[in-house]
Every structure is written in C-alpha cells, then in structure tokens.
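your task:
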Amino acid sequence: MDDLREDHGTFARMGLSGAFSEFEEDGFHFSPVIPYGYYAAKSGPAMRDVSISAEIEMEFTPGRPGTQYAGVSCRANSDGVYHAVLRVDGKYFVYRDAVRRPFTPVALGWLEDVPEGRAAYSLQLDCIGDNLTFYVNGEEIESFTDTRYGIRYGRSGLFTKAGGGAWSGAIIFRNLVIKEILPSDN
C-alpha cells in the first residue's frame, strides 16, 4: 500500500525520464512530457496472481474523442503486460501489450455518467490465473479469460498516455495497492 503522497520507494523513478513525475500532498502527479507518449511506473517484485488498484484523477471530456488515459498494469515482463485504463472521454480499455501484438484491446466499453471536468475514479485489475477482472469504483466492469501469449507473471504499476502537451496536474494517482493473491486466497 502506498498513498503516493511522498516517495516511499514503491517504484524506481529512474525509469520515468521523459515524464513529469512529482509526489505532492494530493498524490503522484504523472504526465508524459512527450506528446502522445506512453509511460509506466512499475514496482517489484514480479508476481503471478495479483490485484492492483489505484485512484486516478484527471480532466474528463465525455462525448469528445480523447487520447489521454490513465490506469494500472499487471504482469509486465519481457513477453508483455496487461493495462486497464480509463480514457478522458469515458471509454475504458483492457489491453494486452505483447511483443508479437502490441496494444491489443481485449475488453472495451463506455462508463455511464462521466462528469465533464476534473474527476477521480478508483481502478482495480485482478490478474488471477488466466482470468482478468477490471473494476471501476468497486463495480465489476469486465471479466474474461486470456491465454493468447501466456503472460503469466510480472511486475505491477501505473500506466498513462498523454493526449498532448504535459502539465503538472494532468493525471494524479493516489492510494496504490498491490496485493499478491496466493493459492489459498482463491
């Protein structure tokens, strides 16, 4: 558990070059400096079955296409990673990002009643065996099985993509929880 209000050593900042990243009283401000760039902050160690959650806060513009998004990741390794993200227009995605097939959406849809303006959402991704389950504000949004490339273990963390120029308040992450799920927990 990390409130992300100060650096507790959850993830290495050396991998964040090219991104604005700062711990502040309201959370971890994380924004790519390069327009339309992708960035991740991952923790260690690598785990097989995991539940990762965090609160994201950003500016939403429902009904207007947007490219900026924020979310959580699990099982990041040399074979690939899973990302569960919420985009600024209210569309959500779960991506399988594998070397052989980058950024393949394996689940997507729209959240209802996304407010115009700055808002916060709690995102959770459970990666247990071949099953992935995505929650938004505690409500199950998607649940599915994926065995395509055998992405079975790896590190977990935060993921973001800029929609244009970076600014210090673009995306704020808070209350990161990474929980290993042991066989007796299933």
Summary: Residues 18-185 form a domain with the Jelly Rolls fold (CATH 2.60.120.560). The longest strand covers residues 117-128. The CA atoms of residues 124 and 135 lie 5 Å apart.
